[in-house]
């Protein structure tokens, strides 16, 4: 059971890293040249995923839920290991 929880925890960690990498940085959102604007590793992000208004809010919500899931599965795995169920 601990192995299953740790696998889910690893999947949540990779998902959280991925979601953070595809989000736009604050310096990229500003219209001026005040910042480097490196959204994603390798340069400025000009992905077609940002074509509609509100996509960033959805990405933030998804990232929040993945982070909560990561926290829950981490706590469950540690409690499970501590009690040796």
If you had to describe this structure to a student in words, what would you say it looks like?
With 85 residues, this protein is mostly helical. It has helices spanning 2-22, 26-29, 55-83. It is elongated. The relative contact order is 0.19. Residues 33-38 have low confidence and may be disordered.
Query: Would you list the SSEs in sequence order as H and E?
Result: HHH
Q: What structural class results from the helix and strand content?
A: mainly alpha
**Uncertain stretches of 5 or more adjacent residues:** 33-38
Q: Tell me, rounded to a whole number, the average pLDDT.
A: 77
| Number of strand elements | 0
Percent of residues in beta strands? under 5%
Shape descriptor: elongated
Largest sheet entry: none
The number of helical segments is 3
Distance between the termini: 9 Å
What's the alpha carbon Rg, rounded to whole Å? 17 Å
The helix fraction, in percent, is: 55-70%
Summed up, what is this model?
It contains three helices and no strands.
What descriptors fit this protein?
85 residues; mainly alpha; 3 helices
Topology:
Blueprint: H1 2-22, H2 26-29, H3 55-83
